[in-house]
Model the fold of this input.
Amino acid sequence: MNQNTINIKKQIQTLDSIQERFDVLKNAYKDETAYLVTCGATLTDHDQQILKDKLKDKLVICAKQSLNYLNDICDFHLVSTYNFQPYSYQNENTIKSWQLTASNMENELDRIVNKWQHGIDLYFPVISGPWLTLEGTTAYTRNFDNWKQLGEHTQVTWGPGILYESGFPLCYLLGVNRIVTIGWDIGDLSRYNGNDRDPNWLEQHATELYNAEMGKGPSYTELKNTIECTSAMYDWFQKENIQVDILSATNPADSRFNRITLEEL
Done:
């Protein structure tokens, strides 16, 4: 865990409004490296203790169930109400950030607080259906300036996907100049075998970290766009002077993204 996170969490918990909390986070980790972790199958291919040793004093952002691999060193935990499972935090300083469906935000907040009794340090709405179709998402439009919305309006546009809605927007807000993704595998179009959905979608995840039901996964067209948009994504990161390195042996993103190994982390 990055030592700045302890003081940042204390500071934001003194503030009443979500906007004020996001204002504190703006450029709070300027020119640092963010290690953005998600639960693709390659995450648990890496030796857990070696990974923890390498990241123990770094800025670590875990999406959903990937928390269960790096729990005690996680700075920010990105959560949504989809495929939710209860989490037990080993580090009291982890900042809990929730993305909510804008059209159902009030109900989801009630569910988090009263039904699940889960902590919230940050939350923001994702603008999606019924106001936005899949064709209007960030991946489809290639409008990655959408990721700047989190600091400007404390909302984001539908990704689809938690990294496109929480992970990359948060990294931009924090002011980092390098992002290393870990376990970001995206998906494999060849597994669809002519089907609209991958019949074995769960196998593309680090299943040992899950105790919740998984959805049916993206459609072939949705995943195709999520992969193909990475060409424009690479250009956007270049324009914003942010280096992105990928630690994954299977990620099909644009080949210009630098691939690294655990030893190079």
In short: The longest strand covers residues 95-101. The mean pLDDT is 96. The chain is about 30% helix and 15% strand.
